[in-house]
Amino acid sequence: MKVLHVIPGLSPSLGGPPQVALNLVRALRDCGVDAEIVATNYDGSGFLDVPLNQRVDYHWSDAPDASVPVWFLPYQPPALKEFIFSPALTKWLWNHIQEYDVLDNHYLFSYAPTCAATIARWKGVPYTVRTMGQLTSWALAQSRSKKQIYTALAERRNLQRAAAIHCTSPSEIEDVRNFGVKTPTITLPLGVNAPPIDPAAATKVRQHYNIPANTPIILFLSRLHYKKRPELLLKSLSQLQKSLPFHVILAGSGDANYISELQSLVETLGMADRVTFPGMVVGQDKDLLFQGADLFVLPSFSENFGIAVAEALIVGLPVVITPGIQIAPDIAAAEAGLVVEGEEDLLADAIRHLLASPERRQQMGKNGIKLAKEKYSWHTIAQNLIPAYQTIATQKKLPTNVGFHQPIEVQ
Prior knowledge:
Structural class: alpha/beta
Number of domains: 2
CATH class of the largest domain: Alpha Beta
Distance between the termini: 20 Å
Largest sheet: 9 strands, mixed
Number of strands: 17
Helix content: 40-55%
Radius of gyration: 21 Å
CATH superfamily of the largest domain: Glycogen Phosphorylase B
């Protein structure tokens, strides 16, 4: 069986979706599936330095010892944010799409998956769609008019005629149904890889960022974007600075103007000596941050999964998150962190409680490792996805909702 994953780009600037595609394809190949990726060379304001128009073994920063086969096609700038138009990709898909048994399209409201779905229907190749949290009410409210037009022209048809829609949680299924789409769904979480453990991580992080030895580190690691609400975290922490020691690391890239606003807010709150902006952190440096911090906080409006949250869990870092992160029920049930509404006082109280309770943080950390290993293993996810691919490849119908560890029966 040959499977093609289609995604607008693999640039780290696109956040979590590239990591999903790369790690899933790697796991599928380890399970014996001939899986590949096609993407553009988009890299934010520039271009990825990769060979074009040929199949390459692509290595990425978070897994330097691994590689997956990728076809990179040139995009045509200027690219509207995340639309990423590519005539070369169109031609490549038209010429090669019938070489694959199944397409797995990542993302909505973007040219590559839209184009792939359209050509797949024309050529008779079945495809699935990953909505990546883009059908939540919050996400649909962003650029609402443009998305309504795009939906009417292409996206609703793409979703309705897909062989299946891949969801990561029951709440994402609700989003699909609320959007008026009745296509069968496959419900599987996303995964996370356990990094090598560095017992000296806490010391190394404090030395690198000049943080006193006994000062707790609060980590925010994600895109610096208003969707993620780093400003809410900063305002909440301003309530604690007179009573508790802490240092905040806001790791991630983002729009330069927005980052300047965050830096100005830090100055206004009088927290300049308590906050570090290291920019995007990847690979071993990222692993070190997760292992060296004391608490991970992501007060996002909306996340279909939250890869960074799972990365915190797998190394035993307790988390404080908001209900908009769709794995929040798993975390609450496992007691691997605290789930609080996105309000300054509530977030501040949760952080205060955990900073003052090292024993509870330790227990939450153990619970988080157990949860991540049992439920967020890429290998397990790939093994559960393969039967769905096999059913789809034979042009047979999936059950309405296929869940995690649920046998897939052909109907």
